[in-house]
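Structure (tokenized):
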């Protein structure tokens, strides 16, 4: 019951601080993420192949001021997902004695959903609500030779481990591509929407004056789009990417403004700042985007 009791203490502390249930659930996921990362990076079978990426990497390694829900890894070498699932199942059930654990791997897919039956015990699910808290693991092949990997010692809740992760410029390139390429549907009617957290991260990179890894950005853009594939001049690709990014940001602040705000709710401790953050977003983006052109 060690995991369950520690999660209960997290809930009590956050409730005393006035946190809403969405933020509490995200905080519990952040705690569980530490177990998954410890499993990956204490295992030589996976630590050499799996490069930590995405928003949770920004949170754990670089300290971005928002929570994150999924774990993203790029694979330098193939990983046997059946072995991975068997071993992480034993890790939670046998090593950490969490019997309310299960997982699901979709056929022919590289996404694994870890399921923790805990919300009923924590009084965070009632009635028809599911007692399961999900943590998703997304695995993707590394499709570009242009990247930089670093290693950092993380002191993460109950664990210390060496995590292999992309450097911040490579992560920025990945975030720009996610904004440009991500297609997301929401609700029963499958309405087009956005991930507001992507735009939150974009502004964070710009505020830090980070230059994206343009070699990687150009390489992957050309591989993923025939339009960019036909452009031989990097400067043309760059100007086109930034123009499209401008258009995406404008849509996020107009057509998808409510979606932008709603998506951030589970990940920001002080939800009262979200409306003001989104209202001022275009002004701040316009002021800072010169970083993308090498102007600070």
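Design, position by position:
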């Amino acid at each position: 019951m060690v995991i369950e009791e520690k999660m209960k203490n997290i809930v009590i502390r956050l409730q005393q601080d006035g946190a809403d249930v969405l933020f509490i659930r995200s905080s519990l996921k952040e705690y569980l993420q530490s177990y998954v990362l410890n499993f990956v990076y204490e295992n030589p079978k996976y630590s050499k192949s799996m490069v930590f990426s995405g928003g949770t990497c920004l949170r754990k390694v670089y300290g971005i001021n928002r929570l994150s829900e999924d774990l993203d890894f790029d694979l330098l070498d193939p990983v046997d997902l059946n072995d991975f699932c068997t071993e992480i199942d034993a890790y939670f059930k046998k090593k950490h004695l969490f019997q309310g654990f299960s997982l699901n791997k979709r056929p022919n897919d590289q996404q694994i959903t870890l399921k923790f039956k805990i919300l009923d015990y924590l009084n965070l699910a009632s009635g028809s609500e599911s007692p399961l808290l999900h943590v998703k693991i997304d695995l993707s092949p590394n499709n570009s030779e242009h990247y930089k990997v670093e290693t950092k010692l993380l002191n993460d809740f109950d664990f210390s481990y060496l995590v292999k992760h992309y450097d911040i410029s490579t992560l920025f390139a990945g975030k720009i591509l996610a904004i440009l390429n991500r297609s997301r549907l929401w609700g029963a009617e499958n309405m087009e929407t956005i991930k507001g957290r992507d735009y939150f991260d974009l502004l964070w990179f710009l505020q830090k004056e980070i230059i994206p890894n343009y070699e990687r950005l150009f390489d992957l853009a050309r591989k993923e789009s025939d339009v960019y594939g036909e452009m031989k001049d990097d400067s043309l690709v760059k100007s086109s990417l930034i123009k499209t990014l401008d258009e995406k940001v404008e849509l996020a602040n107009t057509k998808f403004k409510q979606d932008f705000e709603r998506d951030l709710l589970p990940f920001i401790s002080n939800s009262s700042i979200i409306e003001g953050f989104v209202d001022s977003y275009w002004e701040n983006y316009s002021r800072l985007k010169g970083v993308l052109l090498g102007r600070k």
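Reviewer-requested clarification: The CA atoms of residues 121 and 131 lie 8 Å apart. The longest strand covers residues 132-141.
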